[in-house]
Amino acid sequence: MPSRPRVLDGVDGELARLKNMATRFGGVFDAVTDRYADAAILAGMTVFAVRFEGHPHPEFVGMLALSAALIVSYSRARIEADLPDVIESGRLDSVFGLASRDVRSLIAAIGTVVGQCYWTLIVLAAVSALTVAWRLVYLRVTVGSRRFPTET
Fold it and tell me: pLDDT tens across 119-139, in order?
């Protein structure tokens, strides 16, 4: 299945694939550095909310946003690893829709520019949690309780 270019982060991966230079290590390295970048952005937003916004418990809200963002990424990786038939069927958009990394990054950018990090962190936590819930419900309905193949 051809991959779609991602708005913010996909240039390096797309270029590697186009030049036939993509490696598994590169893919893993890119995914790991993306998680660090996500964490740094959300940490920065949390620090801003703590220092400059007067809302209650911004550290907790930041932790929720970070946790939910990491679970979104983990759920995608787990689905890709355990359900290759879903990938091959072309149904990925149905499963992965909602709050992709690009969508979350855009929300974070807008919230940061307008100086509303606290509320943006709440929105990010909510859309991330909804994305994970959607994936679980979708997979439960479409894949059901299909068992892993056993080795003989």
Answer: 999 999 999 999 999 888 888
